[in-house]
Amino acid sequence: MIDFGYSLSKSRTLRIDNLDDSRFKALHKLEPDAYKCIGCGSCTASCSAGVFTELSLRKILLSMQRGDEKEYLNQLQSCMLCGKCMLVCPRGINTRHLILSICKICSIEK
Amino acid sequence: MRERFLIGFDPFVLPFMIGMAFVLTYCIVGLVRVILQLSKADRRKLAASLFKPANAWRNIRDMFCDCLFHVKLWKRNPKLGYMHSSIAFGWFMLIVLGHIETFMFVPEKAGLFYYPIFFRYFMMMDNYSLRGSFFFFAMDFFLLVVLSGILLAMYKRIRSRFFGMRRTTRLSITDRVGLYSLWAIFPLRWIAEGFTAGIAGGSFMTIPINMLLKNFMSNPENITVAWWLYSLALGTFMIALPFSRYMHIPAEILLIPMKNAGLKVYHPRKGFALAQIYTCPSCGVCIDACPMSASKQNLKDTSVYLVRQIKRNNARRMNAMTDKCLMCGKCQEVCQIALQSYDIRMKIRERATYNLELNHGYLDSYQPSIAKSKVLYYAGCMSSLTPVTGRSVKKLLDAARIDWTQMDPDGGVCCGRPLILAGRRKEAEQMIAKNTAIIESSGASILLVSCAICYRVFKEEYALKGIRVMHYTEYFNELMEEGRLKLNRGALRYAYHDPCDLGRGCGIYEEPREALSRVGIIAPAEKERAMSVCCGGSVGSLTLSQEDRIPITQASVQNMLFSNPDRIVTACPLCHKTYSRFSPVKVVDFAEALCDGLEKKADKVPEAVLETVEL
Fold it and tell me: In angstroms, what separates the C-alpha of B70 from chain A's closest C-alpha?
């Protein structure tokens, strides 16, 4: 391979055939607002726990849509459920229930 | 009076006796179950309270006032009060007088359950019957009292608005069986006693009936049919009673001593909670009171229906209804039996299971540096979304020359109440411990809180040694009383909203009003203090979506606009944020309203305004 000084970045393509979004669908059943997210990140910006940790609800929700939420779930554990994200969400998503529903559906394998 | 029959028995008493035996067995088994379900400490507490003279007297008084006279209901709604107490007290008197008659005339039959009830069938007048004439009149009088109550009850089913209730409970099938058989009992008793009035005597109610169709009425075969029907109605009612809302009649007798003993709910459908659930009479007062009833789709999620689902042990509905609730506590405030729906709901929430545990271990390394001062101000998470709160508090504290520091200038640790409300008390403890450590190490003597939600949890869950937790409404009012904070009175009319956690939660109603009346004029809301309506933004509700909250907020804003205020004032950042979106008038925080008094330099109140106030 000739070194051009740059290379292709790792593919972020999702293979729809292999996509496992069953947990996201289950989440949508528990909290229909899950489909509403536009990924603006207001929740993350206002997050009380985000001051201390990497918690980003936007990332968690996006990764759930892509079926690879495993690496982000431990972030969610730091949530204080204070509900500020619910007040700032421009789409009016019930984020607290969204988080509680994720807690019901997903678990961290040890 | 003397006996008509030698054997003193007739088969028609059987339906009544079967019903009676069934109810008694059911109640005794239920009583034993509830007592066994209590923890040992609770049982001891209950037993001890029964023998304390002051408490025993309170129990007896409450039983008469609540079960028979419905004093609380009279105060709230005289029409409903009359309806309930006429049936309860009238029926009670009929039973008591029946027993007295039996004791007086046939003491040897006093041990038979059915004798006092069917006294007029088994007895006949003799030459000395005048001695019973007092009873003839009294029995008919109380029968009339009960019948008037029944008539009102029937009318209430057609037009509940006459009784000031917009909505009443939709009855279940067993409730209906109970209701209709209860309605039938007293007219049938009237007719049955009318049939025998010629033999056993009667008064202004029963004699005219007897006179009406003399020959028909005095035919012994017809007499038995009438008494059969009366007994059947009684039997049906008693068989239906344990499965219907009428279980509240025996259950309340158990609940009153338990409540006076100060027991606590520990499980949603065991022990104390079970006694409460069976005492719920499904009156439906909580339906109109519930802020969620602003939209029709939520009606079935109110406390009265929750109790029904708990009785049925329908876990799916129980959880759904509990998660939807705003936890404002108003249903508890209006409830005639003071059903602790808040505690029961909390216990249901605490039993929910999650696969992913929250973990706030990361807080261990958080060590904020807080300057030592007398007053430590905790703004709370929500206040960072309403920065005006913090700014106004700062202005006021500086104006009063208070030595203070803020605990969470760049966002601190949450107080823990949102987690507790989501039923995750265990996980909130880490945060409570962290905050306690920070506060106690700060060396402050007063913890000042500007959020009603935080205030409640600091009061209820935290054990802060030597530190006075004060809500800013209390604190600023105290500063003004002491003359340390001087504010000028303006002409603005403020409508003060009682946040649920501050008012019903902590009982603070007067301080904010006193403080506000020093800077302006208080414009009362339609429903306020303990009856205040939740703003709809509560973190108590887990599943209510933002769209579904809109009608609740709109209804609550309307309630605040009752006397055309210039400003809506609230002492909770969450209410502030929620109201601001829907209010046509400016919504201000309590501290912001007080700041109005800082800015104006001795503005005189325009006379025109004073005149309208006097009107």
Answer: 41
